[in-house]
Amino acid sequence: QVHLVESGGGVVQPGRSLRLSCGASGFIFRNYGMHWVRQAPGEGLEWVAAIYYDGSNEYFADSVTGRFTISRDNSQNTLYLQMNSLRAEDTAVYYCARDWGGGNSGYIDYWGQGILVTVSS
Amino acid sequence: DIQVTQSPSSLSASVGDRVTITCRASQGISRWLAWYQQKPGKAPRSLMYATSTLESGVPSRFSGSGFGTDFTLTITNLQPEDFATYYCQQYNSYPQTFGQGTKLEIK
To answer: Deepest in the core among A5, B7, B61, B98, taking most CB within 10 A?
Structure first.
């Protein structure tokens, strides 16, 4: 079955960087678009970024544009989120998620368990 | 960006009840609306896409309807495992956007 496992979270100071990873298994990773979605403590879901199945296109929420990058290594079945210039408002649980299709249809059919990123001095 | 507004924000119901959650988009999104269920401390679970198509394994007591700007999620014969927070999401236009959530609690 589809399995998505995030890693790389933790506590980081404002202005610093952090890279999240997501290991995928149980499906043909290179065929699917992928997303990052986050959820601040006690808040709702916020879509963050998406990448096409082949990495040819990337999409970002306005709140992270210019600070976050998304990438993937299809040979390693791994998705990444590089987060730079982190702010307190980036504190959230970050979910790795699979798009229904190969691009950015926007519909998410599988979710990882999430990983907490805390931005604090 | 398309805004998505859910109502109510919270709802109390009993086992066996029928409940309806509404989602309204700020502009027409055709039928490109999804519903997700989230339990405390857990990842969201995808329930339904394209307004009314259930994901595999989702019980038939869940149903969806609507088109354009107004959509509903209906749960009949509520079961204890259905008490959770529900989010709608439009994916007609980039960026995809979520509603603020509806917390369904046991009365």
So the answer is: B98
**Distances in whole angstroms, Cα of residue A22 to Cα of each of A46, A82, A121, B8, B89:** 18, 12, 26, 34, 23
Residue B12's closest CA among B77, B74, B102, B72? B102
Residues in A closer than 8 angstroms to B33, CB to CB, are none
Q: Which of A39, A45, A63 to mutate to test the interface with B (most CBs of B within 10 A)?
A: A45
Task: Give the mean pLDDT of chain B.
Answer: 97
The predicted-structure confidence for A81-100, as pLDDT tens digits, reads as follows: 999 999 999 999 999 999 99
Contact between B45 and A95 using a beta-carbon 8 Å cutoff:
no
Average pLDDT score over residue span B46-64 = 97
Chain A 10-49, CB below 8 Å of chain B: which residues?
A: 37, 44-47
d(C-alpha B36, C-alpha B47), whole Å: 5
- pLDDT tens, residue by residue, A6-45: 999 999 999 999 999 999 999 999 999 999 999 999 999 9
Q: Does B29 touch chain A (CB under 8 A)?
A: no
User: What's the mean pLDDT in A104-108?
Assistant: 88
With a CB-CB cutoff of 8 Å, which residues 41-100 of chain B face chain A?
A: 42-46, 49-50, 55, 87, 89-92, 94-100
